[in-house]
Amino acid sequence: MTLRHLHIDGESRSAADLKKTGPHRYWEDKSTDLWCVAYAFDQEEPKLWFPGDPVPRKIEWHIEDDGPVYAWNVAFERCMWKARLGPKYGWPVPKERQFNCTMSEALIMNLPGALDKAGPAIGSAITKDKDGHRLMLQMSKPRKLRKNEPCPKCGDRLRECFCGPYWHEDPEKLRRLAEYCKQDVRTEQAIADFVLPMSASEKRIFHLDARINERGVFIDKDLCIASQKIVDKTVAKIDAQIQRITLGEV
Predict the structure, then answer these.
(1) Cα dist. 204→11, 207, 238 in Å?
(2) 3-state secondary structure the chain
(3) What is the pLDDT of residue 200?
(4) Is the N or C terminus of the chain more exposed, i.e. has fewer CB atoms within 10 Å?
(5) pTM of structure
(6) Over the stretch 93-124, which tens digit does the pLDDT of each residue have?
(7) What does the pLDDT read at residue 1?
């Protein structure tokens, strides 16, 4: 069994808002896809993969050998792998026990949970690319057609074409985004080399938490709807009483 560590980071685009949906709903959205993936083994220089490239053979071997996968906030990469890299691009999907989170290891050591802050906190000269971060935010969301710009898909010159979403697909921007992705991996590598690995008990809790989030929580929808109706009626009754008592002032 290999003992090498695979470090990975993906850059994506979507009409879904990651902050509102969380990683599971985000990667379930049909508009969500990948710009690129940066990866490295141990402390090697990161390499790039783009959609349409073959699956890296070293990654295939690593996953098949039950090798560990590390990422910063690995829940995002776990969902990315299970929803896109595996079913759409043919990557072998790691088992749950193979995923490891450098961010969680940093938090256990009372280090910041943000990648751009954790690097400086450990005194690393390798830090997150702040200019690239702004570009990532731009390219992760759809753009509007510019004035008189033909639709890239159907050629129509309608301001509100129904072929979208449209993306920032400038080659230079994509090159710059890929370099940003590589720098994220370098930063995560530096932090991974500094932090202590999880203890056996911490790792059991980490993987239990992941299974809970994967499974979700059962909700009695009928009970929730009935409860909301009771709340609405009660609030209306209380509002009417307050209005009467205050002679309409409240």
Answers:
(1) 29, 5, 48
(2) CCCCCEEEEEEEECCCCHHHHHHHHHHHCCCCEEEEEEEEECCCCCEEECCCCCCCHHHHHHHHCCCCEEECCHHHHHHHHHHHHCCCCCCCCCCHHHEEEHHHHHHHCCCCCCHHHHHHHCCCCCCCCHHHHHHHHHHCCCECCCCCCCCCCCCCCCCCCCCCCECCCCHHHHHHHHHHHHHHHHHHHHHHHHCCCCCHHHHHHHHHHHHHHHHCCCCCHHHHHHHHHHHHHHHHHHHHHHHHHCCCCC
(3) 94
(4) N
(5) 0.82
(6) 999 999 999 999 999 999 999 999 999 999 99
(7) 44
Dig out the tokens for 11 from the structure: 């850059």
Q: For residue 198, which phi and psi values (nearest 5 degrees)?
A: -65, 145
Pairing of strands 6-13, 69-71: parallel
Q: Dihedral through CA 7, CA 36, CA 95, CA 3, nearest 10?
A: -30
How many other CB atoms sit within 10 Å of the CB of residue 110?
7
Rounded Cα distance, 216 and 107, in Å: 24
One-letter amino acid at 2 equals: T
Q: For residues 13 and 249, what is the distance between their CA atoms, to the nearest angstrom?
A: 50
User: CA triplet 128, 131, 135: central angle to 5 degrees?
Assistant: 110
Q: What pLDDT, in 10s, does the model give residues 16-47?
A: 999 999 999 999 999 999 999 999 999 999 99
Give the chain's mean pLDDT: 92
